[in-house]
From TrEMBL:
GO biological process: one example: photosynthesis
Cofactor(s) this protein requires: Mg(2+)
PANTHER family for this protein: PYROPHOSPHATE--FRUCTOSE 6-PHOSPHATE 1-PHOSPHOTRANSFERASE, PYROPHOSPHATE--FRUCTOSE 6-PHOSPHATE 1-PHOSPHOTRANSFERASE SUBUNIT ALPHA 1
Record keywords, A-Z: Cytoplasm, Glycolysis, Kinase, Magnesium, Metal-binding, Transferase
Catalytic activity: beta-D-fructose 6-phosphate + diphosphate = beta-D-fructose 1,6-bisphosphate + phosphate + H(+)
Name recorded for this polypeptide: Phosphofructokinase domain-containing protein
Lineage: Eukaryota, Viridiplantae, Streptophyta, Embryophyta, Tracheophyta
């Protein structure tokens, strides 16, 4: 086990360096464990190794807490169940405290990078009063002021029912889903790329970006100026979006209180970031079983001499003895992104494993929205309790996994049976 990194293989020199190391160690195989970025690297290494006739085979394994490596072959990733179970218990503890004290609003930021799968699953498990999904914000093109108004209206509606407390979940990728903040980040990153020092970036922003930048609190300005990650994305875990929203909501509620349009108690917010508390947890029973099976599949992939494949298991919502093992080419999960840098230019990026965002037409999202009104105005908090390794709770699986109808391997098997019947009838 070589270790964990956020770095991405970018250059020909890095690829060749990896190949030289594999050849020097006489490795039969290199198993890359990770999410979208890691498996994109796995595909690139597999292709280069094959072209160079390097004996080392490359296999990918879907492991990431973000849950954003999802497609017809991969139903969920190792780690997602654990992170959601641990976070849901922490959220439920906050819900209990809010209900007890009756005077605080908890703003809780969840991990998950650009996709909101963790926030969605935790909301389904713990029933907070409100969850803001980045995908919803992006689809509706909501501004920071729109989101602030939504939260303020919710606070006011709850106050009319004599409820001056609540719990609100926020995904860490929300900052990149808000159009004006995303555009500001892009402009800042562009100046980073040109070698402009952090001290001088604010003075070189365009007029609209400068106006927005000056409007934001000092702590957010400093966080937005942080250098981007190796994949050019913002350092999302360092940007305290929950504190920004809490501050904007407090300002607006104080204004409404002074104007007399809000008659509840003074607004009080407490902010949390649930990240590394869950990342360092013992794995759930589901994740242990899933990882063990994937490891076994890796062995069979390599024994068959395959290169550039990902280990897969489908029908995961069923009991373990009904899981279906398989393998899929990583290239079948890849897309090429296009983006525009102006009206006259369109850039075509490199192929990458597709990052799945929350499906706003999916069954999990539909379940969330069916209960959203009740969760907002009533306190129907749910506490799933701590991780269990024995007993009925040990076999619980992600709700978002169980409600979706997937099982790609099962459908392929059924198709094969139908084709065999047709072939038999034609004889």
């Amino acid at each position: 086990m070589l270790g964990r990194t956020k770095d991405q293989i970018r250059t020909t020199e890095q690829v060749n360096g990896a190949m030289a190391t594999c050849q020097a160690l006489k490795l039969d195989a290199l198993v890359i464990i990770g999410g979208v970025t890691s498996n994109t690297d796995a595909a690139q290494l597999a292709e280069t190794f094959a072209e160079a006739k390097c004996a080392t085979k490359v296999v990918g394994v879907p492991v990431t807490l973000n849950g954003d490596l999802k497609n017809q072959f991969v139903e969920t990733t190792v780690g997602f169940d654990t992170i959601c179970k641990v976070n849901s218990q922490l959220i439920s503890n906050m819900c209990t405290d809010a209900l007890s004290a009756e005077k605080y609003y908890y703003f809780i930021r969840m991990m998950g990078r650009k996709a909101s799968h963790v926030a969605l699953e935790c909301a389904l498990q713990s029933h907070p009063n409100m969850v803001i999904l980045g995908e919803e914000v992006a689809a509706s093109k909501l501004t920071i002021f729109d989101i602030t108004k939504q939260i303020c209206d919710a606070v006011q509606a709850r106050a009319e029912k004599d409820k001056n407390h609540g719990v609100i979940l926020i995904p860490e990728g929300l900052v990149e889903s808000i159009p004006e903040l995303y555009a500001l980040l892009q402009e800042i990153n562009g100046l980073h790329g040109k070698g402009v020092s952090v001290e001088n970036i604010s003075s070189q922003l365009s007029p609209w970006a400068s106006a927005l930048f000056e409007f934001l609190p000092q702590f957010i300005r400093q966080q937005l100026l942080l250098r981007p990650e190796s994949d050019d994305s913002a350092q999302l875990s360092q940007i305290e979006t929950e504190k920004l929203l809490a501050q904007l909501v407090e300002t607006e509620m104080n204004k409404r209180l002074k104007e007399g349009t809000y008659k509840g108690k003074k607004f009080n917010a407490i902010c949390h970031f649930f990240g590394y508390q869950a990342r360092g947890a013992m794995p759930s029973k589901f994740d242990c079983d899933y990882a063990y099976v994937l490891g076994h599949v890796c062995y069979h992939i390599l024994a068959a001499g395959l290169n550039g494949y990902m280990a897969t298991v489908t029908n995961l919502k069923s009991p373990l003895n009904k899981w279906r093992c398989g393998a899929a080419p990583i290239s079948s999960m890849m897309t090429v992104k296009r983006w525009s840098r102006g009206p006259a230019t369109t850039q075509i990026g490199k192929p990458a494993v597709h990052m799945a965002s929350v499906d706003l037409r999916g069954k999990a999202y539909e379940m969330l929205r069916q209960n959203s009104s009740s969760c907002l105005l009533e306190d129907i908090y749910r506490n799933p309790g701590p991780l269990q390794f024995e007993g009925p709770g040990a076999d619980a699986k992600p709700i978002s996994l169980c409600v979706e109808d997937q099982d790609y391997m099962g459908r392929i098997k059924k198709l094969q049976e139908y084709l065999e019947k047709v072939a038999f009838m034609n004889q």
